[in-house]
Specification:
Length: 295
């Protein structure tokens, strides 16, 4: 995803008491964007940067630094405590959920939707380090923010990611998608008339916003079907959504949650999902520091 995605993963200060100690820093160096979470008293300071422009050094002023992501070396944080990307996202998503007064079930599937989307089966254990028991990778899909932006740019080269998401939010996908109602006004069998029959297949006049709405829905529905199938096979009918593609993207989240619900799987987004990896990396570094002090 391009630097234009800063609109979706923007700088902010979030009140999240007890999540990060003062001075703790987590860095999630993604393929294009690097997300940073820094503990500031009872708050978490969030910021995002283009990975290519981050520079050779980690952000200064922190006491404990953790790092994760595919481009750790580009962020200049080789000396930081490093975490595997999915592990960090699980840790951060659970912590952010708890800070918002919500709890994940003891077992669930994480759907980490960034440039692509990865899935993991998670088993929480209060007695384990960080409260995270076992995390098992369940594969992934190349569908994600990267494919959404890449296809959209080929349709309308002048748009950045922020404009793509905004236009999709305002568009009407029913003008670009063939719906069940187009063939069966009352639906057919258990399939309702408001469901998609064929993505982007409707002939006629559809604006770019309508096409982008359909494209975003295509991603949401298909990622949700994969996530739901993983959840059902793992016998974990709950999916926790995290990652930059989910962040401040309510249209996508709505498509994900409604499609997952059709399979009897509950899905919801973690608070500030684009920063789950950065928060998790910081927590891993704090835990590692505490362990060294105990020794």
């Amino acid at each position: 995803m391009s630097e234009g995605q800063v609109r979706a993963v923007e700088d902010a200060v979030v009140r999240a008491t007890g999540v990060l100690p003062d001075g703790a820093i987590g860095i999630d160096a993604g393929l294009t964007l690097t997300k940073i979470a820094r503990g500031r008293g009872d708050r978490i300071e969030l910021s995002v940067h283009a990975t290519s422009a981050l520079g050779e050094r980690a952000p200064a002023g922190g006491t404990v630094a953790g790092a994760t992501g595919a481009r750790i070396a580009h962020a200049g944080v080789e000396a930081a405590v490093q975490s595997e990307e999915i592990d960090a996202a699980v840790r951060g998503a659970v912590a952010l959920l708890r800070a918002a007064g919500r709890e994940a079930p003891p077992e669930f599937v994480l759907a980490l939707a960034g440039t692509g989307t990865a899935f993991a089966a998670v088993r929480l254990n209060a007695g384990a380090r960080g409260g995270i028991g076992r995390v098992s990778h369940l594969g992934g899909t190349a569908l994600g923010g990267g494919s959404f932006e890449g296809i959209a740019r080929r349709l309308e080269p002048g748009l950045d990611y922020a404009a793509m998401v905004t236009l999709a939010e305002r568009g009407d996908r029913c003008r670009a998608d063939l719906m069940i109602a187009d063939a069966y006004p009352d639906g057919v069998g258990r399939v309702g008339p408001d469901l998609t029959a064929a993505h982007l297949a409707k002939q006629g006049d559809a604006g770019i916003g309508d096409v982008l709405a359909a494209l975003l829905n295509l991603h949401g529905e298909n990622i949700a079907q994969i996530a739901a199938s993983r959840a059902l096979v793992a016998r974990m009918p709950y999916v926790l959504l995290a990652g930059g593609f989910v962040h401040q993207n309510p249209t996508l989240v709505a498509a994900l949650t409604s499609m997952a619900a059709m399979f009897g799987v509950r899905a919801e987004a973690a608070p500030w999902p684009g920063f789950a990896g950065a928060v998790g990396a910081a927590l891993a570094a704090v835990e590692a520091s505490d362990t060294r002090m105990e020794v």
